[in-house]
Write a structure and sequence with these properties.
By secondary structure, this protein is mainly alpha-helical. The chain is 51% helix and 0% strand.
Length: 65
């Protein structure tokens, strides 16, 4: 995904969410950056709840920074 297809945003997370995301990151083979991890988590949730089609998954797994 190119930078032109990305939207920069600032999000304030509750401490428990930040800690959970850090745990998720540590469990990944490639240790994604925080933005990559958040994109992966959102992608999985959005696909799982029918907001994105399945084919969107490959873009996020490759890494959205």
């Amino acid at each position: 995904m190119s930078d032109q297809e990305k939207v920069a945003t600032t999000v304030r997370l509750e401490k428990r969410y930040a800690e959970a995301i850090d745990q998720f990151r540590r469990e990944q083979e490639d240790l994604p950056t925080l933005p990559q991890a958040i994109n992966r988590i959102l992608n999985d949730w959005l696909i799982g709840n029918g907001y994105l089609p399945m084919e969107e998954e490959k873009d996020v797994v490759e890494g959205a920074e």
